[in-house]
C-alpha cells in the first residue's frame, strides 16, 4: 500500500487527509472566521462525522500577559477538513487554572 501526499506535503490516510493536515485546516479556518489565531490545541479527536478540536485563543491581550483573556473554542470539521461549526466553550484569565 502506498501513501499519497496532500497539497501541504502531509501523508494522507487511506480515507482522506492526515490528522496533521486536519488540525492545521481547523486552526486556519477558525483564524479566518474570527480573526484570532489559536495559541494551542487542547483536544483533537475523530468524531462520527469528521474531527473535533478544542483550541485556546487570546481574545483580549493585556499587560502583564498573565491577565490576558483566553477562550476555549470547540471546532468541528467534516471528513474532508471543512469547518462545519465552532463555538466558544469558556472564557478565562490566563493566570487562572481550572478549578475542578
**Reading side by side through the largest sheet, how are the strands ordered?**
1-2-3-4
Overall outline: elongated
State the order of secondary-structure elements, H for helix, E for strand: HEEEE
What composes the largest sheet? 4 strands, antiparallel
Number of helices: 1
The count of domains is 1
What share of the residues does DSSP label as strand, in percent? 35-45%
Structure class = alpha+beta
Enumerate the spans where pLDDT stays under 50 for 5 or more consecutive residues. Answer: 1-12
Helix percent band:
10-25%
N-to-C CA distance:
46 Å
Radius of gyration (Å): 15 Å
- Using DSSP, what is the number of strands? 4
Notes on the protein architecture:
This protein is α+β, with helices and mostly antiparallel strands and 100 residues long. The protein has one domain (19-93). The protein is built from 1 helix and 4 strands; from the N terminus they run H-E-E-E-E. It has one helix at 19-34, and strands at residues 38-46, 50-60, 69-78, 83-93. A 4-stranded antiparallel sheet has the order 1-2-3-4.
Break the fold down into its secondary structure elements and pairings.
Elements: H1 19-34, E1 38-46, E2 50-60, E3 69-78, E4 83-93
Antiparallel strand pairs: 1-2, 2-3, 3-4
Salient structural properties:
alpha+beta, 41% strand, single chain, 4 strands, elongated, 100 residues
Short description:
The protein is an alpha+beta fold and 100 residues long.
Amino acid at each position: 500500500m502506498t501513501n499519497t501526499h496532500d497539497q501541504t506535503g502531509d501523508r494522507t490516510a487511506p480515507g482522506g487527509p492526515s490528522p496533521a493536515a486536519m488540525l492545521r485546516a481547523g486552526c486556519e479556518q477558525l483564524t479566518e472566521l474570527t480573526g484570532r489565531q489559536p495559541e494551542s490545541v487542547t483536544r483533537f479527536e475523530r468524531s462520527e462525522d469528521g474531527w473535533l478540536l478544542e483550541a485556546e485563543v487570546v481574545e483580549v491581550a493585556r499587560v502583564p500577559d498573565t491577565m490576558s483573556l483566553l477562550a476555549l473554542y470547540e471546532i468541528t470539521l467534516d471528513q474532508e477538513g471543512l469547518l462545519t461549526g465552532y463555538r466558544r466553550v469558556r472564557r478565562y484569565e490566563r493566570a487562572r487554572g481550572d478549578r475542578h
